[in-house]
Specification:
By secondary structure, the chain is an alpha/beta fold. The chain has helices at residues 3-14, 47-59, 77-85, 111-117, 130-134, and strands at residues 22-27, 30-36, 67-73, 90-95, 123-125.
Length: 138
């Protein structure tokens, strides 16, 4: 599969949640997890965190080296850091943080900045299928 096919799966996953965020984690062309934000009493239940938990459980390991995370929106600082700790190799995201129309979901800290400050260990591809991902917010 291609980046486009996995991102489209993330977009479909986002439509299942109460918030417009969907994530797919892939390793060696196998989908390990596909999730969305969950409305709960847990403020860490972001799509990325849910997917990392699911992928780790599936692999029986907390090391997600070699995995790519596809997200409909740029991961927030918490989610980027979780990717870093899980050793995710690549993040592909759609909507840029500054493009998100709802101010309540904006944290003005870019993934690229956090990646730079933490040794550029994760490959990042932003703005991928951006227009399709932004439609989730309307």
């Amino acid at each position: 599969m291609t980046d486009e096919k996995y991102m489209k799966i993330a977009i479909e996953e986002a439509k299942k949640g109460d918030f417009p965020f969907g994530v797919v984690i892939v390793k060696d062309n196998e989908i390990l997890a596909k999730t969305h934000n969950t409305a709960s009493l847990d403020p860490t239940a972001h799509a990325e965190i849910n997917a990392i938990r699911e992928a780790c459980k599936k692999l029986g390991n907390i090391d997600l080296s070699g995995c790519t995370l596809y997200s409909t929106c740029e991961p927030c600082p918490m989610c980027f850091t979780a990717c870093w700790w899980a050793r995710i190799s690549k993040i592909v995201y759609g909507a840029e943080g500054e493009d998100v129309p709802e101010d309540e979901w904006k944290i003005d800290v870019k993934c690229s900045y956090l990646n730079e400050k933490s040794g550029n260990k994760i490959k990042i591809k932003g703005g991928f299928l951006k227009d399709e991902c932004l439609k989730l917010f309307s």
